[in-house]
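Project outcomes to date are best conveyed with an example. Our students and postdoctoral researchers have been running inverse folding experiments weekly, and each run begins with a structure described purely in tokens. The record below, which covers 457 residues, was selected by the lab manager from last quarter's runs and is presented without edits.
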């Protein structure tokens, strides 16, 4: 018997029926997005784009419906549009071919502009909530910095086209690479970049980062941005960072702040004085967990500004951007691309991140209602719980999704994650002395992420 063929479940075509639309959620989406869409409709007219049936409001509603209601494809979406409409769009008859072609050609720039118009409103909503606590490391760091951002890139999956108009396009080629900036405090996206080359190095993003990031920003970077000249440019702009030390790095110790069984905090010099590897002075923090040492580099040279355990705890939270990638690619379907055109891929990217931002806003509102940290809330279970809210709303048992998800009787929906280990108070002393178990205090599983995975990222 021959070997069984391996399949990627992310590329499996959806066959289930779409989730029914709920009036309460539809009204909230309409209220949230209508102002941004209206602004961009005016921009469309300035560009000279003629008004047509498949216009900006309809296309935004179509993309959100594909994501929110888990629609199997454009053919099913066209049937839904003809019979019931969706969100703010009334029933409209269009051909499946016309809808497919519109996904290929509709300017992705307009979705980007809607997304960026929406973000300030979501940030304002975040600041208006004050019941959910922030992690101690973030609270402490925000007394020194204006913002904490995470930056990383992710390669998009191979193309598995849904649109009939793309049947002749070869499948299996990677669709490019996206890079994202996430605000660690709000968890909302700040910026998204797309590159057609899926093998593009993160170094290609350095100029974009330097143009985007303002002084008094702390960046959490993975080792893809391990570039001394780039680091020096950040420091010159009063932008600081935390990253990981590469294996085999040659270091020269210049000053020792702490040297104990479980913690070493030292000032070091890296580089060889060449153009590619200029000398740079950084702080190396090493934290012991069991028999394993974890190494962190930061441009913050004073332990009073950023104590060693705060540095380690913050870098562990860099994993939140991996959670975001997992949500948009696996839960919201960005691993299954609708179209092989570059414009169509960008349209799906912007539409998916737009819906992700709305989902984060809903999750944060639930966290605030429960007075719990955002990390305690499962965005996946909120997304899956929309069906249960729909049923309850139809039966007259619920009117507000936030109240519904926070209600004690709906605990079984899994909106609040199970806490595996008790929280331990963060040590914020700049020169912490050796304490029993202090090397274990922040090495705990959080948000369902295994420690070993998070620390090796």
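After processing, the design step wrote out the following sequence:
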């Amino acid at each position: 018997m021959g070997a069984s063929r391996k399949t990627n479940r992310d590329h499996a075509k959806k066959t289930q029926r779409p989730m029914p639309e709920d009036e309460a959620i539809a009204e909230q989406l309409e209220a949230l997005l209508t102002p941004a869409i209206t602004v961009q409709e005016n921009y469309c007219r300035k560009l000279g784009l003629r008004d047509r049936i498949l216009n900006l409001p309809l296309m935004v509603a179509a993309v959100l419906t594909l994501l929110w209601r888990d629609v199997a494809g454009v053919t099913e979406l066209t049937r839904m549009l003809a019979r019931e409409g969706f969100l703010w769009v009334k029933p409209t008859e269009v051909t499946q071919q016309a809808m497919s072609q519109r996904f290929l050609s509709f300017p992705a720039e307009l979705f980007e502009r809607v997304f960026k118009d929406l973000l300030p409103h979501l940030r304002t909503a975040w600041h208006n909530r004050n019941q959910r606590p922030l992690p101690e490391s973030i609270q402490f760091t925000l007394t020194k910095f204006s913002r904490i951002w995470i930056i990383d890139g992710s390669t998009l999956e191979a193309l598995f086209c849904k649109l009939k108009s793309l049947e002749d396009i070869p499948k299996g080629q990677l669709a490019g690479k996206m890079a994202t900036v996430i605000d660690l405090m709000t968890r909302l996206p700040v910026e998204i970049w797309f590159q057609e080359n899926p093998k593009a190095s993160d170094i290609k993003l350095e100029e974009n980062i330097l143009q985007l990031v303002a002084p008094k920003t702390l960046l959490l970077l993975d080792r893809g941005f391990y570039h001394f000249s780039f680091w020096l440019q950040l420091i010159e702009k009063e932008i600081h960072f935390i990253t990981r030390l590469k294996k085999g790095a040659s270091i020269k110790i210049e000053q020792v702040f702490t040297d104990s069984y479980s913690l070493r905090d030292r000032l070091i010099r890296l580089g060889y004085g060449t153009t590619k590897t200029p000398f740079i002075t950084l702080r190396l923090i090493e934290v012991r967990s069991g028999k394993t040492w974890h190494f962190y580099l930061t441009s913050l040279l004073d332990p009073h500004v950023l104590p060693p355990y705060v540095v380690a705890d913050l870098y562990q939270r860099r994993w939140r951007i991996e959670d975001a990638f997992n949500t948009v690619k696996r839960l919201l379907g960005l691993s299954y691309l609708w179209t092989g055109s570059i414009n169509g891929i960008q349209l799906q990217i912007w539409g998916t991140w737009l819906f992700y931002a709305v989902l984060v806003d809903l999750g944060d509102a639930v966290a605030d209602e429960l007075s719990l940290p955002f990390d305690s809330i499962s965005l996946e279970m909120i997304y899956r719980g929309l069906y249960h809210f729909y049923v309850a709303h139809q039966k007259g048992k619920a009117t507000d999704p936030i109240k519904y998800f926070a209600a004690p009787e709906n605990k079984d929906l899994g909106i609040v994650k199970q806490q595996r280990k008790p929280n331990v108070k963060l040590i914020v002393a700049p020169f912490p002395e050796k304490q029993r178990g202090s090397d274990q205090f922040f090495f705990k599983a959080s948000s369902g992420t295994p420690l070993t995975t998070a620390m090796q990222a």
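The domain at 136-377+416-457 is CATH 3.90.350 (Transposase Inhibitor Protein From Tn5; Chain A, domain 1). Residues 434-457 have pLDDT under 50 and may be disordered. The training component of this project remains on track.
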